[in-house]
Amino acid sequence: MTTIGTATTLGRKSVVQTLGGAPHVSNRRLSLSKRPTYFGLRRISGDLWQHAASSLAPRAVNKGKHSCVSVCCASNAAKYDHSVHAEVVQTDFVVVGSGIAGLSYALRVADHGKVAIVTKDVAHEGSTRYAQGGICAVLDASDSVESHISDTVVAGDFLCDLRAVKMVCSEGAAAVLELVDMGAEFTRSSSGDLHLTREGGHEHKRIVHAADMTGREIERVLVEKALAHPNIQFYENHFATDLVTVQEGDATRCVGIDVVERATNKDIRFVSAVTMLASGGAGHIYPNTTNPVVATGDGIAIAARAKAHIANMEFMQFHPTSLYVEPDENAAVSRESVFLITEAVRGEGGLLYNAAGERFMPKYDSRLELAPRDVVARSIDDQLKKYGDKCVYLDITHKPAEEIMEHFPNIAAHLQHSLGLDITKDRIPVVPAMHYTCGGVKTGLKGDTSLPGLYATGEVAYTGLHGANRLASNSLLEGLVYSIKAASASTKYVETNARQSTSLFENAAEEFYSREVSIPPEDPKAVKYALNVLMNLRRKLQATMWENAGIVRSNTRLLDAMEQVKRLRMELEAISAEVDIHSLATIDCELKVEHFELLNLFTVSELVVVSAMMRKESRGLHFTTDYPYKVEGERRPTVINTPLKSARKKIRRKLTLNRSGIGRELAQ
Description:
Main location: plastid
Pathway: Cofactor biosynthesis; NAD(+) biosynthesis; iminoaspartate from L-aspartate (oxidase route): step 1/1
Mean pLDDT: 83
CATH architecture of the domain at 524-657: Up-down Bundle
Pfam families: FAD_binding_2 (PF00890), Succ_DH_flav_C (PF02910)
Structural class: alpha/beta
CATH class of the domain at 524-657: Mainly Alpha
Function: Catalyzes the oxidation of L-aspartate to iminoaspartate.
Protein name: L-aspartate oxidase
Distance between the termini: 23 Å
């Protein structure tokens, strides 16, 4: 977190860029030979914020859709070895993430102001693109909103916020049909209607899908719409590092976000009336995950550092059926994602067998293969530990081959290419893998967080919809519905608050401009060594979390996880001092990103462990051998609303003094 007036973080003095958007300054970049004057902000031509820099217009050059003011200062040869670059970009809305949540939100607010979409990779990369199964919508006459509500609450093990569930289930169909109107080409039945399938935990067929590549189709439509909107600017390959906050008396307000441009290693501060986190989950705190490589919990971590409230981080969903592949000892496993075998395979009749050829789900749950994900994942985990096997097998070969190929063409092609398997004839080797973060930045029904000016939607957020376990295909729906709600609320927030905060935004830009940092000589060997160290620490962290805070937990394991994460942090600090990673990161962007990602993984891992320690029961995705049953008194969200460092100390002290019970003082 960067707090204006109270703290400073890494930064550099030399370039300031201000984004406005008035017709007379649009598409302009202004080069000055000295520090710029901060001009007054005003409302012009329908834009919520404008930067009045018309007097500088004759020196403008083209810079995309937005105008900017920049300053380039030559390096002091005695202190720096080369020029240092930084920018400040001013906009109405900044969105971190370009999946269904971020893009849906951006398209809504873009009619009310300028929008900057900051995305860690290319625009279409993220969890949405890899979603296979589909998106829920109550569209069939035999189905009902009440049934969808019931299925969601049961899957969430009765920990859901009923207000959130009712809102999403009631408004879901209209939101999905809006995607159809935008041009999403979902699979149709022979009658021409949207084809609906069923997945685990659902009483009815209500999953709208595009074969087994639903997320890719949704992402295609939304990216195309966003690229075509004149008020939306993409900033691809920009990595968010911290929120920017200001103090207003006792209150803290978010006024933007700091990022690094990966192509140039340039530090950029986005100063905005509204910051929307839509950055996805945190799958890579574990070694086995279906999440894309960008899912390192960045949004959750930076919000936690800014002291935003975080909730229900103990509930990490492990998808029961990811493709098992023999491990490659030479591969960088800490950065790889496993291939997901969608829930829909079981929804269409797929059966689970152990290595001995025995169908085992009848031993665990009356719902068999269609039990909720937490039940199926623990059942598979129990089979693997009981018999020492590496995987179990998913069998859909009893279904007609034409039907299999029609519904699952992407899975069939991937398995044929990677393992030489024919899913119409061969069983699929599967194991559980971390899949979805049910907790996150705590929000209200309109995506608002505990920090004014900061909103969150999608997997990065805890909305209360999922409770202790997410129902299949509710994730895309949540991101869609909450983005619509957040767009309406945040637009009103800008109109109400923005014009009263001119000085706060100017101070945020001024503070960023005034920072300085020394640049060391280039040292490729030191950079390579530092990168290897960071990757090794990442692997150790992932192994610790898988062993001690994975599918099955205990007080002893969780305490061990906390101590090991603490030791790994200390190891990072020692090595950082030894090779000066902070300085090396100023000359190597890969190192800078790896360093920030590791810090974020540490933060999210600690949030998971602390939250798990706070819950004295087993519920949904959280199963602990010390408290194997549900407890009615524990049926409430786990909220961390104090600095994480304080939370760790309280939990460690409680658990060390009394191994038989863990306090919940940190929860509201």
